[in-house]
Write a structure and sequence with these properties.
This protein has helices at residues 38-44, 122-128; strands at 3-7, 26-30, 52-57, 60-62, 73-78, 93-100, 111-117, 138-142, 145-146, 159-164. By secondary structure, the protein is mainly β. The strands form 2 sheets. The chain has a 5-stranded mixed β-sheet with strand order 2-1-5-3-4, with no helix packed on it. The radius of gyration is 17 Å and the shape is elongated.
């Protein structure tokens, strides 16, 4: 059974279809073959993860690293629609300890427990701290291991340490 992908706002411009009216999302049906996460879907559709604000899988607010299964319904919203979802209650959350070292402390507190939707990646942490434009200048350690893949999916209670290079 294919995945049902709804692209809201300007995300659907690259993948037009017949719309039934203003505000109707573009709906695509994609076979799951080779796709494991929403990140894989974004790559296949040539959508930059930094251009999205929210992902819902089967109606549940999720991170871009969330694993998808046959028949899932996935809604992807652009940043321009972020204000619509400002007060979402995260249904399935994970908690991550984030430690900012040295001059990175200007981006937030030295240590914090951060609540993220299940399936969140290191990219989500960088977005939260407005560090996406600094990613090439960072050393990232997750629970004691250096991680270089920003699509690394965080687990509940991972420790994320960010160091400037």
């Amino acid at each position: 059974m294919p995945l049902s992908i709804k692209l809201y706002g300007d995300l659907g411009d690259k993948h037009p279809h017949k719309k039934k009216g203003v505000g109707i999302p573009n709906t695509l049906f994609i076979e799951i073959s080779g796709l494991k996460t929403v990140i894989d879907i974004l790559k296949q559709l040539d959508i930059d993860e930094n251009d999205i604000s929210h992902v819902f899988i089967n109606g549940i607010y999720s991170g871009a690293g969330k694993i998808v299964e046959d028949g899932d319904r996935i809604g992807i919203f652009p940043k321009k629609m972020a204000i619509m979802f400002l007060e979402i209650t995260t249904i399935k959350s994970i908690f991550t300890q984030v430690i900012l070292h040295e001059e990175l402390r200007e981006f937030g507190p030295a240590e914090a427990i951060v609540e993220l939707p299940e399936g969140s990646t290191l990219n989500a942490v960088l977005k939260k701290y407005n560090l996406t434009n600094q990613k090439e200048k960072l050393e990232i350690i997750v629970t004691g291991k250096p991680i270089h893949d920003l699509d690394y999916i965080l687990k509940d209670w991972d420790n994320v340490a960010l160091f400037p290079l």
